[in-house]
Amino acid sequence: MKVIIIDGQGGGIGRMLVESLKKELPQLEITALGTNALATAAMLKGGADFGATGENAIVYNCPDADLIIGPLAIVVANSLLGEITPAVSKAVGESKAQRLLLPVDRCHNTVIGVVQRPFSEYVEMTVEEVKRMMT
Length: 135
Fold this sequence. Notes:
Blueprint: E1 3-7, H1 12-24, E2 30-34, H2 37-45, E3 50-53, H3 55-61, E4 67-71, H4 86-94, E5 98-102, H5 119-134
Helix pairs in contact: 1-2, 1-5, 3-4
């Protein structure tokens, strides 16, 4: 299973996801794709197996991914203060991969019906979903 985690800005969300997934599923091979070098470095420090940075890395890797994980912002063009380019959101949206999108409201999008929770709970829920998918 090719698992990609996409994050931008400081990479804190991606790092939390990588650390939590590696703790529960150490055999899971994770590729960290950051919109900038800081985000990629944070995810690699969290234990990602591979890392790459920038629009081209994301566009190149999304088509053959099995699972893409990241904040809701990765499917919204120009979100994360412009770090998610239209090409990035298109690549994520057009990928055949299953997408697990965490409802982070920093991208000026509110998902109706989603209960506000601490981000750590969303990470736990994401890990449980990945574990379910792997069985």
